[in-house]
């Protein structure tokens, strides 16, 4: 049994846990190993320091609650403790953002926090500006984060993403290697139904509509096109915009929901709703309801993820041999058009590790965060334990049957996560790790089908606004987002006439969207100038 945290930390965490519900979890990632990832000689964090083990309190995003009751029992963290010569004591992190907010700005903030940017109160940059966490620059310059620093020096693109406009490094994020796939979601369709009905794979929005009508009329689908948690942005993107903030090919920032093409999207979805080919529950249904429709053959075209959706569908197909879902290309308006909205994630994920300002041993904390950017730690994070989850074959790691055909029936992702860091930790994501974690060839195929390498319309990079900008921007966008969420659904369902779209745009402009765009433009201009 692992030691309890100090009473002051436990009391705050217990209070938070009583008030708050747990957050959703997930797992996935990418991979590689290269000379850029070798440890530096001087002050390498992979050489555990001699002497008494420092005790560090840790808040870490938790994905294995179904396997372990305490993060400290996880083999992954135990391996890091041994390698870094530290004693890690874990807080209960299931309370998410609200629980962490109770600790922020107090002496109870843990030494290390590993979380999503959206979970940090105000975001990582806000906590840095507030002084709740320390910049990592001094530790990097002193050789206490040698692996992390060496990698950034070898990869200017990622270095630019990791630091803010003042050149400060707030955290050690999850980093995708240059050759790793960056698109993990898209549409997937019943290929067996296309074959049966003698229909081609749809490439345009109109062809997609024709297919959905055929699925409804000839296959009896009452939810021909379905998705989960309101994830429909691929169809907004078909019109050449994003719904929220985005950057065009001329580096100009836009807010898509006030543009004319957004009305075109609303008209399309309203028409599909009236035609009975768009799942009316898609904006509110949970995962169980979504997958029940797939299993019940009530839908034939869905939007989802390579791992969590397409992978789960493959297991359904083992029961229903006739079902054959395949990745569908991103739909364009006209045959031969380029899909111009980039679906790629940025090469740093929005999760990482920080060191709090109250940490009494930042050098030991740095050792922990740095370990998984070195060769040994990176192998652990990506592939787990040699001889158990992987073997080296011809110089490359190959997953064992413990991962690929787990004797306890665990999925590939879950079996690997018994020993490896999974997708929710600071480390260098290897391409081979990601591809090796996909059990089905169709999942690997989807990465190519959905890829958008030359698309000029980009998502905004990770936020690095000033403290004043963050406060002003959030005060504007909170009300706008609430208004947008309400009225876009009204337009689609038909409870608000589409003729009122100009008034909808005017209302958002009156809520100061132009100022919000101006703030993000200034932020993006500074990003380009780094």
From TrEMBL:
SUPFAM superfamilies: Periplasmic binding protein-like II. PROSITE patterns: PROKAR_LIPOPROTEIN. Coiled coil: none annotated. Residues 1-26 form the signal peptide. The keyword Glycoprotein does not apply. Keywords: Cell membrane, Lipoprotein, Membrane, Palmitate, Signal. The keyword Signal applies. It comes from the Bacteria. Residues 31-46 have a biased composition (Polar residues). Residues 31-51 are annotated as: Disordered. This is Lipoprotein LipO. It comes from Eisenbergiella tayi. The lineage of its organism: Bacteria, Bacillati, Bacillota, Clostridia, Lachnospirales.
């Amino acid at each position: 049994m692992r030691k309890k945290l100090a009473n002051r930390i436990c009391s705050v965490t217990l209070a938070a846990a009583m008030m708050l519900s747990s957050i959703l979890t997930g797992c996935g990632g990418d991979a590689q190993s290269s000379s850029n990832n070798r440890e530096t000689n001087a002050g390498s964090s992979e050489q555990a320091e001699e002497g008494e083990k420092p005790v560090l309190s840790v808040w870490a995003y938790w994905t294995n609650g179904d396997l372990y009751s305490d993060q400290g029992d996880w083999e992954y963290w135990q391996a890091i403790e041994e390698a870094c010569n530290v004693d890690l004591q874990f807080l209960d992190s299931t309370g998410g953002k609200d629980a962490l907010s109770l600790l922020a700005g107090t002496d109870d903030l843990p030494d290390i926090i590993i979380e999503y940017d959206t979970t940090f109160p105000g975001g990582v940059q806000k906590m840095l500006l507030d002084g709740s966490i320390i910049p990592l620059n001094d530790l990097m310059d002193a050789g206490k984060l040698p692996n992390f620093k060496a990698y950034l020096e070898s990869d200017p693109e990622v270095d630019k993403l990791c630091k803010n406009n003042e050149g400060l490094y707030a955290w050690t994020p999850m980093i995708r290697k240059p050759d790793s796939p960056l698109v993990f979601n898209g549409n997937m369709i019943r290929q067996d139904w296309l074959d049966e009905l003698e229909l081609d794979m749809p490439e345009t929005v109109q062809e997609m509509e024709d297919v959905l009508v055929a699925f409804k009329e000839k296959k009896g689908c009452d939810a021909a096109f379905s998705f989960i948690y309101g994830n429909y942005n691929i169809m907004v993107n078909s019109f050449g915009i994003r719904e929220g903030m985005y950057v065009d090919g001329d580096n100009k920032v836009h807010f898509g929901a006030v543009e004319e093409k957004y009305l075109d999207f609303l008209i399309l979805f309203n028409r599909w709703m009236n035609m009975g080919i768009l799942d009316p529950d898609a904006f509110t249904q949970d995962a169980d309801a979504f997958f029940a429709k797939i299993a019940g053959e009530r839908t034939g075209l869905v939007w989802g993820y390579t791992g969590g959706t397409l992978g789960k569908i493959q297991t359904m197909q083992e029961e229903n041999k006739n079902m054959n879902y395949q990745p569908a290309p991103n739909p364009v308006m006209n045959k031969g058009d380029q899909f111009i909205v980039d679906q790629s994630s940025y090469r740093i994920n929005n999760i990482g590790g920080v060191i709090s300002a109250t940490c009494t041993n930042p050098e030991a904390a740095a050792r922990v965060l740095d370990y998984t950017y070195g060769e040994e730690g990176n192998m652990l994070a990506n592939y787990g334990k040699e001889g158990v989850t992987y073997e080296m074959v011809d110089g490359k790691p190959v997953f064992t049957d413990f991962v690929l055909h787990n004797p306890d029936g665990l999925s590939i992702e879950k079996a690997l996560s018994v020993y490896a860091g999974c997708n929710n930790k600071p480390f260098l994501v290897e391409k081979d790790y990601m591809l090796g974690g996909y059990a089905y060839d169709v999942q690997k195929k989807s990465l190519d089908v959905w890829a958008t390498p030359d698309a000029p319309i980009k998502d905004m990079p990770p936020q690095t606004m000033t403290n004043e900008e963050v406060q002003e921007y959030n005060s504007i966008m909170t009300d706008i987002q609430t208004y947008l969420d309400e009225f876009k659904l009204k337009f689609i369902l038909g409870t608000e006439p589409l003729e009122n779209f100009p008034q909808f745009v005017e209302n958002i402009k009156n809520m100061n969207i132009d100022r919000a765009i101006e703030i993000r433009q200034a932020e993006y201009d500074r990003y380009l100038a780094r």
